[in-house]
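[AMINO ACID CHAIN]
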Amino acid sequence: MKNQPNLPLGPLMIDIDGLELSILDHERLVHPLVGGVILFARNYRDRQQLTRLCADIHALRAPSLLIAIDHEGGRVQRCREGFTAVPAMRKLGVMWDSDPSAACVAARSIGYLLADELRDCGVDFSFTPVLDLDWGRSGVIGDRAFHSDPVAVTQLADALIEGLRAAGMGCCGKHFPGHGWVAADSHVAIPVDERSLAEMQPDMEPYRHLKLDAVMPAHVIYPQIDSRPAGFSPVWINRLRHEFAFDGVIFSDDLTMEGASVAGGITERADAAWSAGCDVLLVCNAPDLVGILLETWRPLPDKPARNLQQLAPHTRRVKNPVLYASGLDSIKKLLTSYN
């Protein structure tokens, strides 16, 4: 199939089925509504295969599609064999309790290692860090959170982001304004956080202090503020843009999750997220729904995805073997000293 030059990046980020691009993948990834690809464990066999896959995706069009992945460490690390096993971010929080300075040094070096390994294979972007506070209530967040203290979360996330950027990768804070209080998992339920805005202030502190490239709102309803989930709420997204002065990319969480079902069918969900102010809409693990959107969805107003290209690396980076080795040492120390 002929590659597509000068095709602006669209507002949908979709997935693919296997280890290489199919004919259907080619057709969908050059659709004007598509701007990026999110990879999963099913798309990874080894580093060589991933490198070929990313090269094939990047070659499809210009500017090239953004290739993203959920690669946080711990339970959420899509690429395993051939990649360093990054511990859950909670390990850094435990270290922070005894030595905040050392924990931040470790977070920076681990951020570099995480991004360096992905960038070596051609992945542009990881949806990390998780900025949710651990209130001891959410199983789906749990040890993905750095800590329960917003100061610790902010400091550790800031250091991790510094490491990501040193390896040529941006960052995405999630899940605004906070997913750590609710027990329900938005993948399979519709979580409701009954707290007042004043009670939620600790959850939002990291967003006030961090320089983020992207933010992902939660599929959580905060009824004292708005009846809609944050990702479908212009109230929350306007607050993020104005009160928090955020001018980067806003990703919806996956529109096929149960937490998004309150908006209706897939087209209604896309309309709700787009109208609320999301810039890029994720549609994952539901190829039939992707097909429906590509055939029927016409976003209004018609606008390019906000700043999506800024998340893709544009300059060749110089590898830092010292920082990479420091990341390996930090992981070893976390696994041996902070269990």
The longest helix spans residues 100-121.
